[in-house]
């Protein structure tokens, strides 16, 4: 522990008490490695304030002592966004003790949740008053509201109600000097200058520490229809997507996966069965909450079958069957991991460009890196897929991750930029993509990102080394 | 003209040509006064670039010569946001020649419009491909896309699809150093750091010059139902609002006005008639696009009549009748102006708090300023009303505006802040509310606004004196 860290902790003992300062290495250890176990950090202490005032005291002390803080919620970042630097220079600021749902207002369709509230707990609290918080994702049992806001999280239900950015009506945030900005009031129109709420959403804890958020709730749908369809290619899937969007505003999911992803899941999870009998190169999981329910789904899929747009389809007849369709979708990552090491890319392009991108980028990767297998799956309706390039069979994992993945990553990222897309669709930048963001951003974007960072965190104490470096990072040289 | 301005113009002649530089005082004059004729500025020239590259050249030259620019579109700001400073230190940067609609994509539901495109032209272009750009407002024949984006404009159709912030999928913007940030790609998920698009929306041209925007289009509704209802008080109106919201997601307008506003309109526009016979203290204009059309409107209003929530109601039987209802709503400002000078406030509070605020704030104003008459009208569904305090009969206008209005403004603004609201709901800050924003913002908010401004426009050349001053303004002392 540095003398500054020691002095800071000493100053915080009367504020946080014993429960609020963790220095036992065994208790700290689980929070030093990221979800995917790709990044390993060090930190001599975890600070765990229980109130906004305590967070403010922590940040003010950090500013005074020039000690960096790494805000952490459920530690489920996919890009090392919540893992402290390896040199032990930063302390972890855990928001998990701030786990109150301060208010749920069914009539107004709003909830105020503290940063440490776990997503599935918010789902439950909304359902208890007959409302729904529509955003969900695989890590819902770990991911916290503060992290979801700070990463502008996405998931499989973004199509209709948007990412977190669209669901956040306001935030309470502790700024880098320890002052508190209370932006929780749910004002539908508020033009008092730059939108600080939207600036903090997706800022990955580098501009301020989100301590609570006002979140939009939506009605619980009266009807839910879930279907599986098989198609020849992503272009046909796009055509079907547009038909659904023309027919209903209540399309909630439109997920795509290639045959080999389905096969990987069926091999990995023996209890699951292929939803349709037809052999097809691509598969779709479609869900809507249109009041007409299955009738609309049947009509649109029936028409698509009749005119040859799809080759097969089936509606989930029961909630269990629908859940099985979703288990297939949600098992892809684990199932593919069992096939060997891969370079994984969370990317987006304009929706209309995605079918062509999926085909051409996979072909380009396999041509450029012989023996590899490339394919994308995910949120076609959002123009966002998870694009995986699997190592040639027999490749040494250490060699793959150490030497090949950076090369593959640059190759894929160049394809994304050429297609007008984003190299960070829903997982953010964190530390994993920082160098690539610098390499691929226009001077205008990079200048603006750095200027905002320097303005809001002039001492560089908030999640340093994530999202944007104040000076060009060594890795980008 | 200052030597720096002369040097800058000389440098720009080869770039902009004769059409792009206006120095004739008669041609400049109309653009030196704001829409409400409350602010008068001076500028030795208008620069009118015709392309993004030309805008970039103008801003780069302004940075080089340290000459301030005032971006201007339709010049319909309600807060002096586009009026240059009175000392002639700034040049007007008109975006009106950038008026191309670059793309309209019905299938994707997107349009790319340059900053100078007039709102009603965008409406027409969308309708031509059977789509709708849902935002509209009184100044639609003048207001431009650049201004609407830069002020996060609202209007009467915000309830369902949101303000401009919710309709902007991306922006192209020239930053203060003349570099161009191309954020037009319509990526539904993009977490490449701080959201520069959202930062520019509502920034009033103080962080960059918006040159084009990608905008969301929505389907043309199959049904439209418009009704007028009379209610006893705003609380009953709120109850009715919640019933509509529970019944349909397609509620598009829920406007409220007091009896005296209706009377003022009927006196001022002789061709209009009172929609309902009943005498009631408050009136509502309700519009939805639920597919069930009039049936839903009839059912909900019938139930409300039956249980005494409303005292009278009528559905618009024809499009002409619906248009007449809207003419009443849109004639309020002009009609009330004819009654005498007023202090006008564009404010918002949480929707649930608005009924009580409307009653109590009006009573408080009339008690504090004897002889005045206070009332609010507008977007109840958005928690946003235009609150007018009319001078006591016989008050000298010069005295009223010069001495009373500032006092009334501070009084009203204090009430708004006490109610957890915003003193700038949809009209922005401009120069009119800058001092009040400084007076009423928390240190955290003000520090953040100033930091962002200084970071993005370090030379202070973009719309100086609007939104936030880099140093505390004299007026706020």
Automatic annotation (TrEMBL), chains A, B:
Entry-linked Pfam families: FAD-oxidase_C (PF02913), FAD_binding_4 (PF01565)
* PROSITE patterns in the cross-refs: FAD_PCMH
UniProt GO BP: respiratory electron transport chain
* GO molecular function terms noted in the UniProt entry: catalytic activity; FAD binding
Is Lipid metabolism a UniProt keyword of this protein? no
Q: Does the keyword Flavoprotein apply?
A: yes
The Swiss-Prot or TrEMBL record lists the needed cofactor(s) as: FAD
In what residue span(s) does the FAD-binding PCMH-type domain sit?
Answer: 39-220
Q: Which domain of life is it from?
A: Bacteria
Q: Which UniProt keywords apply?
A: FAD, Flavoprotein
Which family does the UniProt entry place this protein in?
Belongs to the FAD-binding oxidoreductase/transferase type 4 family.
| Name the UniProt record assigns to this protein | 2-hydroxyacid dehydrogenase
